[in-house]
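Reminder to self: tokens first, then the designed residues, so the page reads top to bottom the way the pipeline ran.
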């Protein structure tokens, strides 16, 4: 479980084939503090630490992760959002984020409106029922509030979030990892029954 509050920005050191999985190594300021088996969200994707040293950690990506997320297309030197899993004493500053990506969609537009950056994308129809105005959504692991649903999803990004995450590197057309709000999923599922 994560909060969607990006802890650090890391950098991809390697993406390599390891049998039936891809191995990903990321340079991270907190790498030396990690334990093997610990969960780390990389661009919002829950991963498990398989190797580590004082400057980097490695994880393995299965076929489902590669199919549903942007991690399989990462490049050497690319920056990635990082967040360690919450603990019982962690403040929950964002919202409940599982690190289980629903879909990967292209960024439709990203422009400045006053002090805000406005990010827009379209969700596949099967995920629109979880998107509500002023509700939560995670984009590349960042907990964000939905400003409008009409029919695109519009998010207003404050300067601090823009500057301290990988959002500042996004370009129109880039694939972004989307996790809709878990509470919304439970509500919709309960009402369906």
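Designed residues (193 positions):
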């Amino acid at each position: 479980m994560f909060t969607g509050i990006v802890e650090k920005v890391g950098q991809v050191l390697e993406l390599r084939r390891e049998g039936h999985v891809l191995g990903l190594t990321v340079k991270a300021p907190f790498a030396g503090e990690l334990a093997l088996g610990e969960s780390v969200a990389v661009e919002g994707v829950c991963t498990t630490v398989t190797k580590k040293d004082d400057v980097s950690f490695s994880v393995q990506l299965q076929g489902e992760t590669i199919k549903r997320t942007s991690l399989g297309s990462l490049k050497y030197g690319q920056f990635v959002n990082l967040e360690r899993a919450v603990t019982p004493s962690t403040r929950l500053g964002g919202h409940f984020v599982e690190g289980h990506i629903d879909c990967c969609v292209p960024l439709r537009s990203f422009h400045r409106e006053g002090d805000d950056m406005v990010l827009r994308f379209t969700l596949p129809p099967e995920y629109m029922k979880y998107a509500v105005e002023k509700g939560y959504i995670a984009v590349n692991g960042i907990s964000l509030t939905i400003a409008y649903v009409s029919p695109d999803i519009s998010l207003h990004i404050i300067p601090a979030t823009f500057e301290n995450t990988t959002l500042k590197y996004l370009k129109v057309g880039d694939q972004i990892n989307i996790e809709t709000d878990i509470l919304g999923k439970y509500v919709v599922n309960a009402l369906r029954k």
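The chain has two domains: 8-84, 103-192.
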